[in-house]
Amino acid sequence: MTNASIDFGYPWWLSYGHVPLVVVAFALLWLGYKRKWSILPMLLVGIFAAWAGAAMLVNRFAINVNGQPVLPTENFLRSGAGRVLDIGAGTGRSSIMVLAARPQATLVALDLFSESFEHHFGHGESPQQRLMANLKTAGVDRRATIETADMRKLPFEAGTFDAVVSSYAMDHLNRDGSQQAIREAARVVKPGGEFLLMVITKEPWAQFAFGPLLAHGGARGADWWKGRIEEAGFRILEDGTRPLTLYILARRT
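Now predict its structure.
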């Protein structure tokens, strides 16, 4: 499996947006050198070129939203087996992340596949087809099924799953919606089952690279998320950060 063959569908500017800026910046430097610009404009263009180059490296090697992610913690589903629910699966990044790391697990990839899906991932074939195509390319489709449903009202009986994962999905809801989705996760996971939540967090280096382009209306602090998770009946086992990500691992009491 190669990451290049999987299309997670994120907008081009998240992966390549800094490339034209770098080209323009160095073209201006060359033009300024040839035309013997004064020190001040050359200094300003040089600062812009340095920022564009550094931001491109941050984007490529730290964020890399169209690359295959890895589990933020090896403590999630350490047994390697079990039935997992991926809430807000989107185009399959988190589903592939779990199935690749836990080769004995099976997974239900759930998403509402509403208008917000096309807003984030663009137009094309049906969302379910795009998700399944990525699962097949990753070689994990035989261990996965797709369910179309609202994360705030899951169509499963209580205690159906051994673990639940949700990546960059619940923070797209308002506070009440996020709280309801966490409660639903608690309802459908078995006692002793695990919940891995990953949401976008604000970090200075990300703001350096993207500025307001990565403003995320659902971004909330770790204490807010941990409070809602504990209220739903989970016990926090671990929390931490990864590039652009706050993760919380919890167990159902």
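Residues 39-63 form the longest helix (25 residues).
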